Fold this sequence. Notes:
This protein is mainly alpha-helical. It contains 10 helices and no strands. The longest helix has 31 residues, at 101-131.
Amino acid sequence: FITTGEENLLAILKRRWWKYMILGIIDIEANYLVVKAYQYTTLTSVQLLDCFVIPVVILLSWFFLLVRYKAVHFIGIVVCILGMGCMAGADVLVGRQQGAGENKLIGDLLVLGGATLYGISNVCEEYIVRNLSRVEFLGMIGLFGSFFSGIQLAIMEHKELLKVPWDWQIGLLYVGFSACMFGLYSFMPVVIKKTSATAVNLSLLTADLYSLFCGLFLFHYKVCG
């Protein structure tokens, strides 16, 4: 409100409110689908399948940001998609042995849907931080994201929220998760502006490796061979 001219909050809302509203909803649903997937499938499956965001970002960057890649990048996309198909198939086979095949498949599909929306959000983020403003992106995503996520929480998850056995440990976990997401959303626009949405998502594959180790050693998951 203090800033004058085209950078004023009201001026930004007047010109682009509906675009940020759509982007905010896309980002919310991307997070919601991925988090929801944890109810149906395992940590390792979620973290490995969410790499589907990479081919989505590459293709959208090609068509909308006019970024050009070499043939080796598209070979990487094909390998990525084949790997995700194998991972989803392994989840279904293992799940059937454990009597939860359909649930695991639902979880995998939720991850793929969330990764697709993440890809759309990341490409839009790259365009905004390069051509408009990082502060504008964070402000508008925070504004519309808070509004619509609150509505969705009240409609779809209020019963589940009431069932939570609140104590200091659960509260600390929520605070820790919120702090991690705050850091991710704060620093990602900076890195995207200096590199690209594709480079950022490739870098985030490191998180998949850590999650795999956590799944194997903390939750004692077994990878299907």
